[in-house]
Amino acid sequence: MQRVAIVGHSGRGNYGHYLDMAFVDVEGAEVVALADPEDEGRAKALEKTGAPEGYADYREMIDKVRPDITVFASREIGDHHDLVMASQEVGTHVYIEKPLAATPAEVDRMIAACDANGKLLIVACPWRGHPPIQHAAIPLIREGKIGEPRLARIHGMNGAHGGDQLFLDLYPHFFDFLDQVWGSPKWCHAHLTVDGRDAKPKYLKQGVEGM
Known about the structure:
- The chain has 211 residues and is of the alpha/beta class.
- It has helices at 39-49, 58-65, 77-90, 104-116, 131-142, 165-169, 171-182, and strands at 2-7, 29-35, 54-55, 69-72, 93-96, 121-123, 193-194, 197-198.
- Helix 3 (77-90) runs parallel beside helix 4 (104-116) and helix 5 crosses helix 7 (171-182).
């Protein structure tokens, strides 16, 4: 039985896209504790997940509970590096919400810390286990049953966060899907615009949840 601890932060990334429920009622897993610094949010999450213990300090929880798996559910980028590094002081597998971290250097350190402990660092891409994707869509495309694919075009959501939050939080599902079908890209080209104009450094602004 894998003992699972959940870390969220109500009002600061919350619990991502239901990552607090990722291991609830999953065979072979038991949710043993949950940490959230916000009292009201923690109480709601404890009731929702059925976790028997609640903590305000995630470090205290990890050190005391010493789980097999730690779920870092918040979408807040700025916290992810420190959260993962803290989990590796004990040595736990990690299941973490996107975006993974604020910089590539942070990602490298997170991976290195988990590798040093022989632990997995898994980014939440649930399409990897979604039957319609894995058992229908991908085989149909790969095996040519719907013809030879020549072009893949993805349309995401537009609006205020279409270029920052959704690019980092939603679109990775699509990128991962394409990677599973065709493999890693050989090259990449990007064209960024702001209100129809070429993007420039002066247009940079702070997005939501650290993005």
